[in-house]
Amino acid sequence: MSIENTHHGAKIAASWLALAKRVVMLGIGGVGMYGIASELKRRGKTVVGEDKTPNHLTRTLALGGVLVLLGEEHLPLGEGDVLVYTNAISKDHPTYQKAQSMGIPILSRAEALAGLASSYSPEIAIAGVHGKTTVTTMTGHILTEGGLDPTIFCGGIMKNENSPYRAGNGGVVYEACEYMQSFLAFTPEIGVVLNIEWEHVDAYPTPESIDVAFERFAFQSEHLVAPLEVCSRGRFCEHPHLYTFSLHDRGAFCYAKDMRHKKGRYHFTLCQNGEEIDEISLLVQGEFQIKNALASSVVGRLCGVDGTSICRSLSSETGAKRRLEHRGFLGKTPVFDDYAHHPTEISASLSALRASTEGKLICVFQPHTYSRTAAFLDELARALDLADVVALLPIYGAREENVWGVSSLDLAKKIGAKATAYPGFSAIVPVLPTIAGA
């Protein structure tokens, strides 16, 4: 079971990290932890960490002088240490328990990030159930190209940076994740709420509970950027410094005009505050990316980036890895990799691919967490039904035990004849060429 966040506040977190002789990081191989570790190293701190398995992030950190223990090895703790953990670890983790018994300062990943981010201005937090990584990437690119030299903490690998982290000397842009109410650790100058849907059912028992959390985040932000549909609910419209965006509604502060799809790219004219700025031609796939671009453009405007520069930056933005990323071909069939795991995200990604192909659409899908699969079984089936063929892998449990008794076979039955549940990757790889006609 996931461990909850700490609630010391950004000022205390910043003070502890500044005074630390050494920072010990549990789950250091996670993409969010990587950025924090890199920033601490940049600030001259000794950083060490633990994780279950190696990956390219742990290897990169090790090459940069970070000691990383893998598997069942655990780090000794001592005076002057500060412990930073990811929510994915268990309260029974030996190093976490030892830190508690020794009275060592402990920070969750969110509070550590809040402490680091608080030293930057402007501080920009990107929240939303969907699209955080893409909008963080887009916003960071706009500010970088606009000469603001931001530090960026991203939840995925930014293609333009080939990293989830960018070190800068200007403001800061980061993902404000809603899981376990992590984003309530932040009080940014600019907060972005991209969308709100019921998600993370292990942390939010009802749709109303996630609405309340997002509303709190919105009013912790000095300036709020949000789509009109979000502002029509709750108290969002009462925010004193609200900037709205919309695909079509010209009553929004920012909207898209003359949208069209041509040669695999979406084109539109960016309009802000009643003024036509310039045309944008997106490299990233999917109509939903237009809304992501609008959100990013508003942040750019608030940070003083010239409108023409914003449009030029968005037209050259290549997105994040594993966000409808073209990975190659299986025979003549193009292969895309996508991180979508919520029904809305799956629908958006499959719809984008459907619009760009005339051939058969094959989806290989691994459900993410038992709780999500059980709660959204019908919705997942409807979303995956957009594909012509669906190949399902066993559920990735992540931090969970399967107390729901759900399986990919249940999902396959819901989808129908076009879906098959396979026992693992080794079973599905040999049959893919046949399915694809390669």
Low-confidence stretches: none
User: What structural class do the secondary elements suggest?
Assistant: alpha/beta
Question: What's the total helix number?
Answer: 16
Strand content: 15-25%
Count of β-strands: 20
Helix percent reads 25-40%
User: Strand arrangement, largest sheet?
Assistant: 8-7-9-6-10-11-12-13-14-15
Query: Quaternary arrangement of the chains shown?
Result: single chain
Main sheet attributes: strand count, strand direction, barrel closure: 10 strands, mixed
- Calculate the terminal CA-CA distance, rounded to whole Å: 42 Å
Give the overall form.
globular
- Rounded Rg: 22 Å
Mean pLDDT over the residues? 88
